[in-house]
Amino acid sequence: MVKISKKNSGWWDDFFPAFRPFFGLISQKQTNAQVRYITNKLDLKPGRKFLDCPCGIGRISLPLAKMGIKVTGVDITQPYLDELSKKADRRSLKINVARADMRRINFDSEFDAGGNLGGSFGYFEKGSDNRLVLKKMYRALRPGGKFMIQVINRDWIMANYQPRDWQEIAGVKSMEERHFDYRTSINYGKWHFIKDGKEENFKLIVRIYSFHELIAMFKSVGFADIEGYGSTKEEPISRDKQMMYIIGTKPRRK
After folding, report:
1. H or E element that contains 40
2. pLDDT of amino acid 254
3. What's the pLDDT at 2?
4. Residue 151 in contact with residue 121, Cβ under 8 Å?
5. Residue ranges per structural domain of the chain
6. Residues 71-102, buried b or exposed e (16+ Cβ, 10 A)?
7. Which of 57, 161, 168, 180 is most enclosed, with most CB atoms within 10 A?
8. Predicted confidence (pLDDT) per residue in 177-224, tens digit
9. How many CB atoms lie within 10 A of CB 224?
10. How far is CA 234 from the centre of its chain?
């Protein structure tokens, strides 16, 4: 796996360790529904290999590994990987973990399926870097392998955009101030975390994509048979659906 260098550093280095408590906002019911959907759409069965990139604290990796799927989890946030490894050890589960920038993974035709889940796409200001993430995931799949991305829907953002928002969980309050650049479709956020009277401030940059843009990007790196849905119930994507699930297949060799 590629060594992390200062060249690969960015806003995520400081943001994600502080963001850890907010994983608690996703219910177990939501996670269970997503795991069922992922296994069904990506045709995952015991013994098959899955690349979870980025994997975070293992919200998806752990239940898949429990099902007998051979999971590799990649993330750039070392505390997340440490937590995932400890949870896997306690549950006697085998999960390979690696620390890497998702633009720099170097797997080649190793996995039956892969996922970029939880809205973890569009973290780079350069469109070419976001495309590179898809290209690397495509390369990591075996012919016939499937890839799923779960990402926020630009059309929903435009219909529901709020310049600021508050959240609180586990004694941590957060406020996000947002500015959306219509020229680039990049959302610039300033996050303020408050715990025990102490405040920390972080920046967040996310390029927001529409369904048609992702279809074009998937095709440009080689994916075929591209599908898109607005929920795990396979409702159509519309401005009323906050998230999108996009699935593509790496064609088999002729």
Report:
1. helix 28-41
2. 65
3. 42
4. yes
5. 7-153+209-249, 158-204
6. bbbbbbbeebbebbbebbeeeebebebebbbb
7. 57
8. 999 999 999 999 999 999 998 999 999 999 999 999 999 999 999 999
9. 11
10. 19
d(Cα 216, Cα 56) in Å, to the nearest integer? Answer: 27
| CA-closest candidate to residue 153, choices 19, 22, 245 | 245
Select from 3.30.870.10, 3.40.1550.20, 3.10.129.10, 3.40.50.150 the CATH code of 7-153+209-249.
Answer: 3.40.50.150
Residue with tokens 């495309």, as numbered in its chain: 131
CA dist., res. 8 & res. 104, Å (int): 9
55-88 pLDDT, tens per residue? 999 999 999 999 999 999 999 999 999 999 999 9
**Choice between 83 and 25, residue whose per-residue pLDDT is larger:** 83
Q: Number of C-alpha atoms within 13 angstroms, CB side, residue 73? A: 29
Confidence check: pLDDT of 8 > 70: no
Tokens 């989890």: give the residue. 73
Name the residue among 56, 36, 133, 68 with its Cα closest to residue 97: 56
User: Could you tell me what percentage of the chain is helix, strand and coil, using 3-state DSSP and rounding each to the nearest 5?
Assistant: 30, 30, 35
**Strands 186-195 vs 198-207: parallel, antiparallel or unpaired:** antiparallel
**Cβ–Cβ under 8 Å, residues 77 and 84:** no
Length of the chain: 254
pTM of the model: 0.93
